[in-house]
Amino acid sequence: MSNIKIKFKQEYKSFKKDSEYEFEGRLNILSGINGAGKSQLLDCIKNDITNVYIDGIKILNRNIAKYSFRDNISLPSFGSYDYNITRQYNSCIINIYRNYISLYNQYNQHKQNGSRFFEMNYGLPNDVSFDSFLETVINASINIKQGNSNIGRQVSMHSILQIIEYVKNTYQEDFLELTDEQILGCIPSNFIIKLDGEEIDGITRTFTDAARLRVLEQANCGKKGVKFDNDAWLKSAPWTEINNLFEKLNFNYRFSNDYEYDIPNLKEEPKLFAFENNEINKRKVREINDLSDGEKAILKLVVSTYDRKEDNATKILLLDEYDATLNPSLINDFYITIQEYYLEKGITVLLSTHSPITIAMAPEDTKYYEIFRQVENSPIIKEVSREEYKELEMIQSYYEKIKNPSKRLKELEGENQKLKEKINSMTIPLVITEGKTDWKHIKNAKNKLNINEQYDFFETTNDMGDSAILNMLKTQSQISNTNKRIFIFDNDNKAIIKDVSEEGKKYKKWGNNVFSFVIPKPNIRQNEDSISIEHYYTDDVLKKEIVCEGGITRRIYCGNDFFKNGNSKDLTKRCNKKNVCGDTVIRVLSGSSEEKVFDITEEENNGVNYALSKDDFFEKIIKTDNNIDLTSFNLILDIIKEIIEENITKNNDETEEVTNTKKVEQIAEDIDNPENRINSKENKDNKIEVNEIKTDNNVKKDLVINKEKSVTKIKEENKKQKNKKKRKIIYIVLGIIIFILAIMSVIFSLININNNDIISGVSIKGINVSGMSKEEAKQNIEKVTKEKLLKTIKLIDGDYKVDLNPKDIEASFNVDKAVEEAYNIGRDGNIIVNNYKILMAQLFKKDVNLDFTLNEERLLEIITDTSLKLPGTVVQSSYYIEDDELIITKGTAGERIKADELKREIYNNIEDLNVGDKNLNIPTEIVEPDPINLEKIRAEIYKEPKDAYVTKNPTKVHTHVNGVDFAISMDEAKKIIKEEKDEYVIPLKITLAKKTIADLGEEAFPDKLSTFTTRYDASNYNRSTNIELATKSINGTVIMPGEIFSYNKTIGRTTLEKGYKEGTAYVGGKVVPDVGGGICQVSSTLYNTALLANLEITERSNHLFETSYVSPSRDATVYWGSIDFKFKNTRTYPIKIVGTAKNGVVKIDLYGIKEKEEYEVVIDSDVISYIPNETEYKKDPTLENGKKVVEQVGFNGCKSKGYRILKKNGTVISKTLLSTDTYSPKNKIVRVGTKKVTNNKTTTTQNKDIKIENKTEQ
Fold this sequence. Notes:
Elements (H helix, E strand, L loop, with lengths): L3 E5 L11 E4 L3 E5 L6 H9 L3 E5 L2 E2 L5 E5 L14 H4 L3 H24 L3 H6 L7 H10 L5 E2 L2 E2 L6 H15 L8 H6 L12 H20 L20 H11 L4 E2 L6 E2 L2 E2 L5 E5 L2 E8 L6 H11 L12 E5 L7 H14 L6 E6 L2 H5 L6 E6 L7 E5 L10 H8 L2 H9 L1 H11 L4 E4 L4 H11 L7 E2 L8 H11 L8 E5 L4 H7 L7 E4 L2 E5 L20 H4 L3 E2 L5 E2 L18 E3 L21 E3 L14 H9 L11 H39 L1 H11 L11 H57 L9 E3 L2 E2 L5 H16 L3 E5 L2 E5 L7 E2 L1 H10 L6 H14 L1 E3 L3 E2 L2 H14 L8 E5 L2 E5 L4 E4 L1 H13 L6 E4 L2 E4 L6 H8 L7 E3 L4 E3 L4 E4 L3 H8 L5 E9 L5 H4 L6 E9 L5 H14 L3 E2 L4 E3 H5 L10 E6 L2 E6 ...
Parallel strand pairs: 3-15, 3-16, 6-14, 14-15, 18-19, 18-20, 20-22, 27-32, 29-37, 53-57
Antiparallel strand pairs: 1-2, 1-4, 4-5, 7-8, 9-12, 10-11, 12-13, 16-17, 21-22, 23-24, 25-26, 27-28, 29-30, 31-33, 34-35, 35-42, 36-38, 39-40, 41-42, 43-51, 44-50, 45-49, 46-47, 48-49, 50-51, 52-55, 54-57, 55-56
Helix pairs in contact: 10-11, 24-25, 32-34
């Protein structure tokens, strides 16, 4: 225990000066309603507004750490890091500066030559300033080199500019030629280069710190690269401690076992690896940035303990609603982390929370406090006993019950009812299992192994699942029953296992004759993480093939028969449910349509299902084969037997105890009244002899006892009479009070009987509706909500801005429901309840909630689209096939929107009726691209060669397939991608089909389905070349029914080697050099052709600015690695793209076979509003004073909507909204001269001087 005392040094918001508070636990939980002051208190403690004492010792501010769920979840360095010693960034700083000088000289050279270098390469005006040129270059993602390789991560632009600023401020004009020492001498000793990917960088520095300290200790011995050893000073390496935590929390990943440090760098960058079969698998990397926010939050708590300086060590940890990012399953992990890394190290923790689950799951010795806000005085904090929260113990089980409504309803109405009926009718113990076949396997084994114990099975016909029968179990444990109920669970869910088993015991007792246990692992499955009942059979039985109806061979499949992408490891089959596939997944597939296995060359919907169902596995294999080894099932059967036998003994004891109790009661009654005892015996048997009656001495003794008891009874009777009189008086008083209240209620009713308005004191979302009729209240609320839905939310990320209109996400308020609820206050109960509600509303006010809904799917689409358009967005690794080569492009780190956080902010903004137009900063995080997965890529590109053909009745076109596979082994391919390159080439083996779709001719593509053309400037050589090459790339492409066409994958990356020319593009609102400028016109033309063919568009984004070649909402921009254009062939037959680009015209046709019913398709572009541009003025010292020159012509932006209209015989059948788009305005830029005009005399002299100078030069 510890005592924390907090005293305010000054007034802050609701807290007055000299306010004092005390907390008496090592772990203290502070709760209270919103606005009570929880977060304020923690902020004051951290921001040095209070004096803080632990057990009378003052705690310095640097010894207080504070984290909040509102902070970005990142993992910064907390270790002491001496940059003066390590100087690991020296060469990087020098290279940054050398690059700067190179750019500076390049700028001056082209400036003097008057070339169009800036316009051609960067889209900048020729008189651009050097600062603007420098910023453009840096934003174009130039990597800083260190030796022959990248520094490892992109250096932030802020750090680059800061280094340059240090140097220029030191040397002013003499900064062009400096030595390395001079450059480094300008940089402060505490300067840290900021890199993208702070999470990874922070871990790196933490690990480096630990390893470096070990090396410095042995520096006198001249040793380098010494492996970190556990010693008394550092206790243990950070990677060891974090791995230990991962093990306790059952996380399936680990850091490396050890790291080496060779000055000045850690030899190996910390990465997370898969943890499988009790060992680290370094072939499977999991990026730290891919952890969930909850996992990061827990990891951050651990890393933050690595402050090796004693004077900076944490003494108090403040957590402000830190549990808000944790789901219920992580709350327990959170407490384990707090216990081991803080409480056990003597650190006091103060946690504020809103979560009842956090309170309910807190450790036993936790201290609880509640905070209450006061109007005039400081908030009050009161200690609360754990007993006050006892009702919260049921929260977690209740949460499990209701989190899936449809499943819950099914449980309540289906299996629960069947189970109740079965239990009511049973006379022997009952066994209940999760699945509809689990009980069959156990019953079959019981019969074939000749087990004699008498018990029955709950023969369910549905797969109930572990959560459902856990709820059944908890319900049954509350019901008294003399028969045993035994619940059996699969060994595949750690959370459930913890609930239904007891450590060190075979089964768990719940009371009321309810028991549960988890199926133990048989000897053949000891190395598996999780098992179900089917795993009690050997692999040869489990995967035995049988011929089913129609001659189809089927077998049981498990998740580890497939790669994560769903392809089987022999590349012959595919599973339609990828999330149940992968090396570590042993789970048995159900064989249903939801978990189907089909031929890799077939379509899912048309392909045969080769997965044997669990029902058929039992009925056609297990039940019919008497030679299958069932001995593993003895593990289950023995536990059932042990439960039954223990319960029988216990029941016999209970029966004997009840019998003895009744005997004692009867004896006592007989002693009180001997005559009854005699009469009772005479009635039972008239032949009883008189000598069976008690002796005279015994009778006398009984009379004495009876006399004493009679006196006692008289006293008790008198006492009862007095108590009756008291109760009678109380009843009379209560009756009078109730009568008075009833009279008052009648009077109150008569007063309000004719009142048809909403009662006084009622409001809706803070809007007063007292005294209004329902219609008036509705009109009033609708006016406010309509105004709210017209307010625009501006999403901002630096210079990037995008408007979000609530109507775009179909936001709406349920006004009718709120008004009805407000009107019914004081009307929907009996007379007493109604009058009570009326009185409470008048005294304390009643605010009715106003529900609102929005289209979450549409909101997520907008957030995803916005994330792709952010400046510096993350670019994932990608690949494409070119001829007989697989080209893999390495991804780059970048920004990604935190979707959940942004959704929450948008929700809060719309819900708050008092907030008008508001700017929301887009929450982002820097993420690394996913690692290149060669197994996945190979599985995706692998194909067997097949010829094309056409079948009739019905007509179906079967495309040809060229065989594709790696031409080298997987090990050789992995060696290639280990090299530090931006692009990798894997040779492919292509086996050509003998007959292609092109060989089929018009038989496969007789009809023109749609056509669309756009025009371009043929005199612009570079752009024309790019358009013609892109058109050529898509020409002749055949798209099969159900297939999705990807524009980027089809044309590949636009490179100079392919013949594409340099141009410019807009990225993040700025002009940057780009190879392939113009290919977006081809994608936009194809977009319109696809729309006119009534095809489904699966991915499309609009440009930043309006285009000149199509109307608003009819364009489709693309950018390699991030923005693609895709559409799906939703027609019955294959379609073929025929494209041409010549003489300034792009024309794209789609050919195929017409459907039985075709529609006339019309595409409509509707401009909703225009966004005016602004004029920017720039001072130009080279122009005469007042003279203006237009540097850039501006144009307006707009908001628009695109529609697809289907017509039949001239009648509109449907009108579908395709997109709502925003196009930014382009500002007009005007240069204004500031050069002063000199007089004529001075000018003449100057001219003369110039002539003389020229003459001299001649």
